[in-house]
Amino acid sequence: MTSMTSIVLLVITAFAANPASAQLRSMKADVTPAVPEGQVFRAGAKGTVTLRVLLPQTVHVQSDKPLDKSLIPTALTVEPPPGVKVDKIVYPAASKLKQDGQTEPLAVFGHDFTITVHLSVAAGTAAGEVSVPARLRYQACDEFMCYPPKNVDTKWAIRIAG
Fold first, then answer.
1. Any idea what the CATH number is for the domain that residue 36 is in?
2. Model pLDDT for residues 54-68, shown as the tens digit of each residue
3. In angstroms, what CA-CA distances link 70 with 48, 63, 93?
């Protein structure tokens, strides 16, 4: 084995064994879309769906309105099908996090939070089940570093009654 090959293998082994690299790979949020049990969306009416976001316990994300404009906000983008409209997306209240070396606190969501989406269904929308796709964009951080931003695609299945 050449010395260059040995060095490359050593670097790969060190990186693979490094807990930080393992943590970096595991910063993907688990998201759970939910429709309140038994909820049927009626044509011409409104309803809500939720998205629970769960990250490792020592991790937070910036709120949807970070105090420092250079930080990446958490954002949920919903692409409703025809006849369904997003009226409002409600993020949880942000917590203030003071970090060493920073003069201003951060506005963050903790490792477990829920986003609520208010929907309305247009009058005359056909009855049946429809899919409401969404994408969550966030940047996970811990007390030492922030990880690359991620996007997680999800969707709700809602039942529409005429």
1. 2.60.40.1250
2. 999 999 999 999 998
3. 31, 13, 20
pLDDT for residue 9 is more than 60: no
First-residue to last-residue Cα distance in the chain: 72
- On the 0-12 / 13-18 / 19+ scale of CB atoms within 10 A, 49 is buried
One-letter amino acid of 22 = A
Q: Which residues of 135-154 are buried (b: 16+ CB within 10 A; e: fewer)?
A: ebebbbbbeeebbeeeebeb
Is there a domain that residue 53 lies in? yes
* Calpha distance 16→9 (Å, rounded): 10
| Overall domain count for the chain | 1
- Domain membership flag for residue 17: no
Checking if the pLDDT of 14 tops 90, the result is no
Specify whether the CB–CB gap between 71 and 135 falls below 8 A. Answer: no
Structural domain boundaries enclosing 129: 30-161
